[in-house]
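Thread title: Can someone regenerate the structure for this chain?

I was given the following input by a collaborator and told the matching structure tokens would be attached. They weren't. Posting the sequence so someone can regenerate them.
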Amino acid sequence: MDKDKINQLLERLGGAISSNDLKDVSACWTFPAMFLSDKNATVIADANQLEMFMAQAVEAYRKQGIASGKEKASERSHYILHMAEDGQAHIRVSLTRTK
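Best answer:
Regenerated them for you:
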């Protein structure tokens, strides 16, 4: 898997989360997808479900200061990626830990 494509994907995802562009967030994923965290495991069937899930997550990030630019808390994520037929990387699984 091409490191440049992975970096582009992660930069796109970070920008989309920071700007609350949920359509662009969902474009970074392939479905079905899964979120695993310290507290939950969630299977996401499609882009609409992901956008609803991320709307809640972005609000939680803002309350914690993760997406505000003034970090009050932090999060570490690892991703399992899927390489699409067009050669673009998309996220299939997110493994997230809040510290």
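The first strand starts at residue 29 and ends at 36.
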